Amino acid sequence: NFVIQAKADCYFTNGTEKVHFLVRFIFNLEEYLHFDSDLGMFVALTELGEPDADQWNKRLDLLEMSRAAVNMVCRQKYKLGAPFIVERNVPPEVTVYPERTPLLQQHNLLLCSVTGFYPRDISVKWFRNGQEERSGVMSTGLVRNGDWTFQTTVMLEMIPELGDIYSCLVEHPGLLRPVSVAW
């Protein structure tokens, strides 16, 4: 028993300004050959791939078709997908709450829950009385929701004092302006 796979990838820089098309050929989980659009030819990666690379690089029709895939496949798919992926902006929902019922002079954790946003680029900062708090800040990191959106929770260790105002500031491409939620 054996498994042969072919995997095609398009890599984009600056939209479609620079496109790199790569087709990988894999035998039993080992890549043995690939077509690289930057080189315009097939490249053997193992001894197994040498006969195919030699033979396929002599076929001008196959080389021309593979080179044309940058425009016919990659740039075309980019145009179709861009409105749904590249240009998609879903603003986050922001909620601030304490881990436990807050008591003055008692250690607690404030959580800033930021959910349902796309793309993944996001900035979440904590402020106390208008000054950014950098120490005692922890994050869950980005979590994929499985529906093309993300979530994260950024926590702040704090000891509340009378008159303190804590706020979570969120910046994201889906927001017209940063959102600040006070606690």
TrEMBL record:
BP GO terms, sorted: adaptive immune response; antigen processing and presentation of exogenous peptide antigen via MHC class II
Superkingdom of origin: Eukaryota
Membrane disposition: Single-pass type I membrane protein
Membrane listed as a keyword: yes
InterPro entries: Ig-like_dom (IPR007110), Ig-like_dom_sf (IPR036179), Ig-like_fold (IPR013783), Ig/MHC_CS (IPR003006), Ig_C1-set (IPR003597), MHC/Immunoglobulin (IPR050160), MHC_I/II-like_Ag-recog (IPR011162), MHC_II_a/b_N (IPR014745)
Pfam families tied to this protein: C1-set (PF07654), MHC_II_beta (PF00969)
SUPFAM superfamilies, sorted: Immunoglobulin, MHC antigen-recognition domain
Database matches in Gene3D superfamilies: Class II Histocompatibility Antigen, M Beta Chain, Chain B, domain 1, Immunoglobulins
Principal location listed in the UniProt entry: membrane
PROSITE patterns with a match to the protein in the record: IG_LIKE, IG_MHC
Ranges for domain Ig-like: 92-182
SMART domains documented for this protein: IGc1, MHC_II_beta
Cellular compartment(s): Membrane
Coiled coil: none
The entry's keywords: Adaptive immunity, Disulfide bond, Glycoprotein, Immunity, Membrane, MHC II, Transmembrane, Transmembrane helix
GO cellular component: MHC class II protein complex
Family membership noted in the UniProt record: Belongs to the MHC class II family.
Entries under PANTHER family matching the protein: HLA CLASS II HISTOCOMPATIBILITY ANTIGEN, DO BETA CHAIN, MHC CLASS II-RELATED
Name of the protein: Ig-like domain-containing protein
Lineage of producing organism: Eukaryota, Metazoa, Chordata, Craniata, Vertebrata
